[in-house]
Each structure stands twice: as C-alpha cells, then as structure tokens.
Amino acid sequence: MRDADLRVLIVDQNLMRASILEEGLCEAGYRDVIVVRDMQNLLRRIADEAPDVILIDLENPNRDVLEQMFQVSRIVQRPVAMFVDRSDASMIEAAIDAGVGTYVVDGLRKERVKAIVDTTISRFNAFNRLRDELASTRQQLEDRKLIDRARGILMKERSCSEEEAYNLMRKAAMSENMRIAEVAQSIITAARLLK
To answer: How much of the chain is helix, strand and coil, in % rounded to 5?
Structure first.
C-alpha cells in the first residue's frame, strides 16, 4: 500500500500538537488523516475509523492514561507510534509489551513524522511475521506430538514398524483429504474410547 493510501489516525487532546503531526503527515504525502481529540469511547472511534496506522500523542501522561493507550494498542492490532514528553524505563517496557511499535520521547517534529510512521509500520510487520512463525512452529510441534502418539498406538495395535504406521496415517490423510495431524488426533481419540 502506498503512503498516500494509508489511513492515519492521530489521537491527541492538544490542538497545537495534533496539528504538528497532521501537518507533517500531509507534507509527507499522507492524504487520509483523522484527528481524534476526545478520549471518550476511543476504542469505538478507532474501530469506526478503521485506520491503518495510529499515532498517539500524550503530553505528560499519567499511569491511567498510559494504561488506556496501552489497552488500545493491544486490542486494535495496528501499527502504533506513541509520542510522550517524558518517560522512564518501566513506561517504555510497558508500551513495547502492549504492542506500541515506536515510542518517541520528546521528539515531536513534523520533519520526523514520515520516518517514524515508516519505522512503526516496519516494526509492526516484523513483529507479525515473528508471531506468525512462532504460532506455526508451535502448531508443528503439537502436530508432531500427535503424530508420534498415534504412530505408537498403531505400532502397538497393528504390530507394525514406525514407517508402516506413518504410511498408514499418510494414506488415510490423503484418502480423507485431511492433514496427518487430524488423522493422528482421530486415532488417539478412538484409542481412548476403546480402552
């Protein structure tokens, strides 16, 4: 998606600070920029606007405001950049844990907005790829465990070798148009019922 096509949502109660971000985005070529100044029903507003990127600008955030913004970041699953005037290590850690891709302390300048948005999107995409890889790896490990258990059951019940048991599951998976792990789960379930 081109920058001009991205829908960017700015969350900022301060009119002057929001206009700095908005101006920087417009100068960088972003055409679809929405500014939200009211924090009431923020999640609903974000859902209604369906932005591609969210920029949150907080002047001097207290813990409650930060926690609300971190909650937004966790729920919306979008690239999020957060601008704050001051911070400490625990705030930064909490922001990153909440999914904030870029946490900028005392760095609100319109010339930097494009680079910050690009970095935020890149980090979000990299994080999603890692999360997907982790989920895939976990699924493969779970599948491997199921297949090994089912193979053991078949070897015991059919008095066959590991290779023969695996080939039986593979053949059943192909004929039933299923994954081998699904066939393995069926074998395990059937074995439990027959005990």
So the answer is: 65, 15, 25
Rounded distance, CA 130 to CA 72, Å? 21
Q: C-alpha distances in angstroms, 125 versus 8, 57, 116?
A: 16, 22, 14
The three-class DSSP label of residue 104 is strand
pTM confidence score = 0.74
The answer to whether 58 and 84 have CB atoms below 8 angstroms apart is yes
Structure tokens given for 125: 């995409």
Q: How many whole angstroms separate alpha carbon 172 and alpha carbon 75?
A: 41
Q: Please, which pLDDT band fits residue 89 given cuts at 50, 70 and 90? A: confident
Contact 49, 72 (CB under 8 A): no
Do residues 32 and 53 touch, judged by C-beta distance below 8 A? no
State the DSSP H helix or E strand holding residue 13, giving kind and residue range, or none if neither: none
Compute and round to an integer the Cα radius of gyration of the chain. 25
